């Protein structure tokens, strides 16, 4: 009889099997994720995330698409119908850090009873508005994590934090140049 060990909400056996499968067949680690955006009005957009590709095949395991709402605050001509794009980027980093932390903690036998990340970034809107200024993106992003564990030392938790930073796909995409290939279809 196979027993399932769940730690931090993570099925540790399934995690180990996934790691071994990708180690044995690296093509299983190849994913293409997608996001779609549709302009609605003013600065308001809706987004959809549904299927993705893994190892050349389409994954349709999600019963329905996730719907996102994006807008700007009134000071940037919006109506606050959702977070803006740069806030969603910060949230993506926070999500990625949290997932990486609890999954890697589970793999190491570390129990997590609390895991929070606050992420903030400094941004100058002048280039977006066509004015002179620094680059049109964040100039610095700061992430602050808070963690509680009944069975790990401070040193273990800090080392895990360093490991998560080194292996975070979102952080890597932010700190290393990634080609962005943009096309436009006029309809």
Broad shape: globular
CATH architecture of the largest domain: 2-Layer Sandwich
Number of domains: 2
The parts where pLDDT drops under 50 for at least 5 residues are: none
Report the total helices.
4
Distance between the termini: 58 Å
Task: Give, in spatial order, the strands making up the sheet with the most strands.
Answer: 3-6-7
> What is the CATH domain class of the largest domain?
Alpha Beta
CATH topology of the largest domain: GMP Synthetase, Chain A, domain 3
What is the tally of beta strands? Answer: 10
- What percent of residues adopt helix (DSSP H or I)? 25-40%
**Rg on CA atoms, Å:** 20 Å
Rounded mean pLDDT is: 96
Largest sheet: 3 strands, antiparallel
CATH superfamily of the largest domain: K homology (KH) domain
Structural class from helices and strands? alpha+beta
State the order of secondary-structure elements, H for helix, E for strand.
EEHEEEEEEHEEHH
Beta-strand residue percentage: 25-35%
Quaternary structure type: single chain
Organism: Blastococcus saxobsidens (strain DD2)
Protein name: OsmC family protein
InterPro entries: KH_dom-like_a/b, OsmC/Ohr_fam, OsmC/Ohr_hydroprdx_reductase, OsmC/Ohrsf
Structural features, described:
InterPro entries: KH_dom-like_a/b, OsmC/Ohr_fam, OsmC/Ohr_hydroprdx_reductase, OsmC/Ohrsf. Pfam families: OsmC. This is OsmC family protein. The protein has about 190 residues and is α+β, with helices and mostly antiparallel strands. The chain is about 30% helix and about 25% strand. The protein contains four helices and ten strands. The strands form four sheets. Strands 3-6-7 form a three-stranded antiparallel sheet, with no helix packed on it. Strands 4-5-8 form a three-stranded antiparallel sheet, with no helix packed on it. A two-stranded antiparallel ribbon has the order 1-2. A hairpin with a 2-residue loop joins β1 (about 5) and β2 (about 10). The radius of gyration is 20 Å and the shape is globular. About 10% of the residues are buried. The mean pLDDT is about 95.
